[in-house]
Design a protein that fits this description.
about 140 residues; mainly alpha; about 50% helix; about 0% strand; membrane
Length: about 140
């Protein structure tokens, strides 16, 4: 008797899931591209004749974010124009306004103010505003 090992035959992969194969059949080259299971084109309006109505900004938080951004930009411009202390204070106040807005506006309406968890957003905005405000008062002329 010989103990020579017989060569192993390659194992074939099991067939694909039958349910998945039926749900997503392979498309033919000459098939109809507008089959009922095909997704619609992105950006295609539901009613082609009607323009899509959109509000800008679409949330209350988005509007408040724009106010905060405008105040911050004004602070940077004031600092650039020469009175850097007043500009940085205005920037700091804008960040505090953003923190208060994020705290008071519900999360589903926070828009651009919502980046992380509510308390993390508020804590970071207050911390940066406080640091800027303290630095403005502590840097000598």
């Amino acid at each position: 008797m010989s103990d020579a090992a017989e060569p192993l035959e390659p194992v074939e992969a099991p067939p694909e899931d039958v349910a998945a194969a039926e749900a997503f059949p392979a498309s033919d080259a000459g098939g109809d591209p507008e089959e009922p299971g095909e997704p619609e084109e992105p950006g295609e309006p539901e009613h082609p004749g009607e323009p899509e109505e959109r509000r800008y900004p679409s949330t209350l938080g988005g509007l408040l974010y724009l106010f905060m951004l405008g105040g911050a930009a004004t602070g940077v411009l004031v600092a650039w124009a020469g009175d850097w202390r007043a500009g940085v204070r205005l920037l700091s106040l804008s960040l505090l306004f953003g923190a208060g807005s994020r705290l008071l506006v519900p999360s589903h309406q926070a828009g651009m103010l919502r980046v992380r968890h509510q308390l993390v957003d508020v804590a970071l905005l207050v911390a940066v505003a406080a640091i800027l405000f303290v630095l403005v008062g502590s840097i000598p002329d």
